[in-house]
Amino acid sequence: MGLEKFALVMFLGYISLPVLCEVNRYVYSIEKANYTRLCRTKSILTVNGQFPGPTLYAHHGDTVVVRVLNRADQNITLHWHGVKQPRNPWSDGPAYITQCPIKPGAEFTYKLVFSNEEGTVWWHAHSDWARATVHGAIVIYPKPGSSFPFFRPDEHLPVILGEWWKRDVNDVLTEMLQTGGAPNVSDAFTINGQPGDLYPCSKGGKIMSLIVIAVENGKRYLLHVVNAALNEELFFSIAGHPVTVVGVDGTYTKPFPTDYIMITPGQTMDLLLEANQCSSTAYYMAARAYSSSAAVPFDNTTATAVLEYAGSDSGSSRASPLFPGTLPAYNNTGAVANFTAGLRSLANADHPSDFPLTIDSHVVITVSINELPCPRDTCEGPNGTRIAASLNNISFVTPQVDILTAYYRRIGGVFATGFPSRPPLLFNFTADDLPSELLLPRKGTEVRLIEYNTSVEVVFQGTNLVAGLNHPMHLHGYSFYVVGWGFGNYDREKDTPLYNLVDPPMMNTFGVPRNGWAAVRFRALNPGVWFMHCHLERHMTWGMDAVFIVKNGESPEAQMLPPPPDMPPC
Ligand SMILES: *[C@@H]1O[C@H](CO)[C@@H](O)[C@H](O)[C@H]1NC(C)=O
Ligand SMILES: *[C@@H]1O[C@H](CO)[C@@H](O)[C@H](O)[C@H]1NC(C)=O
Ligand SMILES: *[C@@H]1O[C@H](CO)[C@@H](O)[C@H](O)[C@H]1NC(C)=O
Ligand SMILES: *[C@@H]1O[C@H](CO)[C@@H](O)[C@H](O)[C@H]1NC(C)=O
Ligand SMILES: *[C@@H]1O[C@H](CO)[C@@H](O)[C@H](O)[C@H]1NC(C)=O
Ligand SMILES: *[C@@H]1O[C@H](CO)[C@@H](O)[C@H](O)[C@H]1NC(C)=O
Ligand SMILES: *[C@@H]1O[C@H](CO)[C@@H](O)[C@H](O)[C@H]1NC(C)=O
Ligand SMILES: *[C@@H]1O[C@H](CO)[C@@H](O)[C@H](O)[C@H]1NC(C)=O
Ligand SMILES: *[C@@H]1O[C@H](CO)[C@@H](O)[C@H](O)[C@H]1NC(C)=O
Ligand SMILES: *[C@@H]1O[C@H](CO)[C@@H](O)[C@H](O)[C@H]1NC(C)=O
Ligand SMILES: [Cu+2]
């Protein structure tokens, strides 16, 4: 493992950006547009004054030191999503799980220990809903001297998909918590920080909202795609350009040619793009929601950016770019299933798949939306209730001191160790009508203790309580192999023989199908306190979370590192 270290400084502060304006829709031709109406601006929290935040570049096996200065007036933590941080949960970041927040004016130095990650992972805030604007890509090159398992790209292009509210995202969160109902859906999606020209927006008479990416005919680009949206899974495609998926969640995959991708919040994908189209035309890339449940409102808008070939006629008479005809409809679950089935690990000598074949610990976890009673039924959830969410019927309560410190220093009363290995009640999880006595969850801060070097299989079972939908489940500290998934109720006898035990994809976030299940496997070789949660932000806030504590092993290399001296106090 390389021990090259370099330091980066990230400061948290605010910048002003235009709100989406209510002016007429404008056309792609930038020169022609002339809007005099100024946008209202809003202030957003950013890193180093950039939105999206800076892309970090590293090589396989590097250690990167990041000094984070909080110059904002709110608490913050940063998470390095997909970086396994061997033995070093202290730098993982989720607030009140592995650290107390960095308070306004304070600082904390994170140590990012890259091990086997390759391709794309990302970083984002992990406190409140700050990650809406505090995020960026992490691009990991092969070790110096080694090569990509596919042809060498000529250029790297981060493509960060985001979600935008006209209002301050803190207001959206506060309102959700006050009313007990669903949060407002967003007003726009963004590609590299801009919504594109299907939304009305201008600033000072100039169009600010369309990203134009220049490409050259004959070149090969590696797109580092991140879904940084809070609450929506997204389809993404590029007109006239099928892409080849070569990596997902920081692991290279078998090359998978496709016309579109579906990427959940939390996931990252490496896409090879060959610029081989007609050089006098421009092509849209577009992103819009995949909505898995007709019962759940979603943002029904489309973000665009433009691929423009060098040498195209960039005069004012330029025609509109081609729109991708291959972007699936918002409700096309078949397209999601087909895409997901195409993701497979390399499983070769250079990139072996080392998933466990025998299982020591088999855990089944129901993933549910719930309802809590609300005084006089005045909340805005169904029937006047307050919406909640749970794993195995436990709606996670965030503690006031971080679980990692409590575990390490043996401070009692912060968490309990009763997270069950089975759903407390067996019922037809995916039935259309479920009795209302099942809707109420239990509240608690329950962790599951795992012995070092246990081989674990977790089966996530979606339920149809309140509303079944696709849940992107994310585990910190590990990547897991997705050995199986399907619709309906998981049946161990029937489903295990159908697992992919040849080349299952290695991921850290997987969309558990609506009213379906997913089985993932990992070997517990990374001691620490690791958060596991749905990566839809509203579900995480509602309690769709749990914590795995992987205990130390015997040898010194199998033990958690001690905390750094500058851990923020609570
Ligand atoms: C934009 O419109 C304003 C008002 O209609 C006009 O005064 C100005 O000359 C226009 N600018 C350009 C660059 O066309
Ligand atoms: C949410 O949407 C409602 C209805 O459109 C609106 O009245 C309210 O102001 C919005 N709240 C926020 C925080 O955006
Ligand atoms: C989404 O928007 C399109 C275009 O505005 C509209 O035709 C369609 O009905 C909308 N669909 C949903 C589910 O809201
Ligand atoms: C998707 O929604 C459209 C209406 O917006 C409907 O006609 C179609 O049947 C739906 N498809 C699926 C697969 O649900
Ligand atoms: C999924 O793939 C199958 C087999 O290639 C194809 O027949 C089907 O049309 C695809 N479904 C969608 C929604 O793309
Ligand atoms: C609301 O209450 C009615 C009557 O008790 C019940 O039939 C319905 O299932 C409830 N809906 C939800 C979403 O809880
Ligand atoms: C569970 O509910 C689904 C959806 O209504 C139904 O198709 C299935 O037959 C039910 N399964 C059992 C075992 O009752
Ligand atoms: C969850 O726990 C609550 C409280 O113990 C209970 O009333 C409810 O039936 C349970 N629901 C499920 C689905 O286990
Ligand atoms: C983990 O356990 C397996 C046997 O189950 C053993 O072969 C392997 O060496 C162990 N690995 C470590 C790092 O302890
Ligand atoms: C910020 O974090 C500190 C330490 O955990 C906590 O005491 C304080 O309440 C937090 N402030 C806010 C506004 O959440
Ligand atoms: Cu969810």
UniProtKB/TrEMBL annotation:
Binds 4 Cu cations per monomer. GO terms for biological process: lignin catabolic process. One of its GO terms (cellular component) is apoplast. Transmembrane segments: none annotated. InterPro entries: Cu-oxidase-like_N (IPR011707), Cu-oxidase_2nd (IPR001117), Cu-oxidase_C (IPR011706), Cu-oxidase_fam (IPR045087), Cu_oxidase_CS (IPR033138), Cu_oxidase_Cu_BS (IPR002355), Cupredoxin (IPR008972), CuRO_1_LCC (IPR034288). Residues 30-143, 157-311, 419-553 form the Plastocyanin-like domain. PANTHER family: LACCASE-14 (PTHR11709:SF262), MULTI-COPPER OXIDASE (PTHR11709). This is Laccase. The lineage of its organism: Eukaryota, Viridiplantae, Streptophyta, Embryophyta, Tracheophyta.
